[in-house]
């Protein structure tokens, strides 16, 4: 699966969040990081070609006045045209669509009674409607709230959440285990240090044994449960 | 359960000796995953024991 990250930010070089995310884009995966220019005409044919080539499309942006930045809004008008993105002869149906949105306010203010009053789900409705129009599957958004105040531990968790958001197909626990096993295989293939190689190999085998044992246990428990009910 | 203790200790030592953020994030995530596996293994085997130990079926 190929993932396209469309990044919209008026000054991404100065954005701690965007710089952090840029450095966490998996090198091994089929992920394209695509920054929208702020002051250049949109090359519509090129943008449409990028959409054709990728299966999962991500909009990554800071929430400005409860909406997307202006260059992303212009991109929508220019690129998502009738006959290409929707309507008769449209060819973009069936993609996955994800939103990575960063907030300057604490996430818990985005609810009834909070300072921002409306939930993120409510505020992102126009993008959900867009996905619906295009017949794209809307993924659960990745919301990054007040990046600059995040602890070291929270940032480590964000790295994995972000990488999985870009590349994970199955968000169940089984899918997560498979994702880590894949990552371990990649590391085993690229590690030169013999001690580390041995450690990673044994870790991978143990994680896989646990995965199998867990699946077998669940299968047996479900079988007995079905018999009882 | 010696191998499970080894698993957690080894991931922790890789986490402690990593300096790059991406590496630390990976090992922290892997450690969380391994702990979640052990928790679920424990819960599932407990549930299995409970369901096998069923006096109403002792006819």
Automatic annotation (TrEMBL), chain A:
Species: Periweissella ghanensis
Superkingdom of source: Bacteria
Protein known as: Glutathione-regulated potassium-efflux system ancillary protein KefG
Gene behind this protein: kefG
Location of the Flavodoxin-like fold domain: 1-156
Gene3D superfamilies: 3.40.50.360
UniProt xrefs under InterPro entries: Flavodoxin_fold (IPR003680), Flavoprotein-like_sf (IPR029039), KefG/KefF (IPR046980)
Keywords: Oxidoreductase
Gene Ontology molecular function: NAD(P)H dehydrogenase (quinone) activity
EC id: 1.6.5.2
UniProtKB/TrEMBL annotation, chain B:
Domain of life: Bacteria
Organism whose genome encodes this protein: Periweissella ghanensis
Name the UniProt record assigns to this protein: Uncharacterized protein
């Amino acid at each position: 699966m190929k993932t396209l990250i469309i990044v919209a930010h008026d000054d991404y070089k100065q954005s701690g969040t965007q710089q952090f995310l840029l450095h966490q884009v998996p090198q091994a995966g089929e992920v394209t990081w695509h920054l929208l220019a702020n002051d250049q005409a949109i090359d519509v044919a090129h943008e449409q070609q990028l959409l054709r080539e990728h299966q999962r499309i991500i909009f990554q942006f800071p929430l400005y006045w409860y909406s997307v930045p202006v260059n992303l809004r212009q991109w929508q008008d220019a690129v998502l045209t009738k006959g290409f993105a929707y309507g008769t002869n449209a060819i973009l149906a069936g993609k996955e669509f994800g939103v990575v949105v960063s907030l300057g306010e604490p996430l818990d203010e985005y609810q009834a009674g909070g300072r921002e009053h409306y939930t993120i789900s409510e505020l992102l409705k126009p993008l959900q409607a867009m996905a619906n129009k295009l017949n794209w599957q809307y993924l659960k958004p990745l919301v990054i709230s007040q990046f600059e105040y995040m602890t070291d531990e929270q940032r480590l968790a964000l790295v994995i959440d972000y990488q999985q958001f870009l590349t994970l197909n199955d968000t169940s626990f089984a899918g997560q285990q498979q994702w880590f096993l894949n990552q371990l295989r990649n590391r085993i293939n690229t590690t030169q240090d013999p001690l580390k190689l041995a450690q990673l190999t044994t870790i991978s085998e143990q994680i896989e044994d646990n995965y199998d044992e867990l699946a077998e246990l669940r299968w047996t428990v479900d079988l007995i449960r079905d018999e009882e009910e | 359960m010696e191998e499970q203790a080894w698993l957690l200790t080894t991931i922790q030592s890789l986490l402690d000796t990593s300096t790059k953020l991406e590496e630390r994030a990976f090992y922290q995530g892997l450690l969380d995953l391994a702990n979640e596996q052990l928790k679920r293994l424990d819960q599932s085997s407990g549930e299995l024991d409970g369901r096998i130990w069923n006096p109403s079926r002792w006819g």
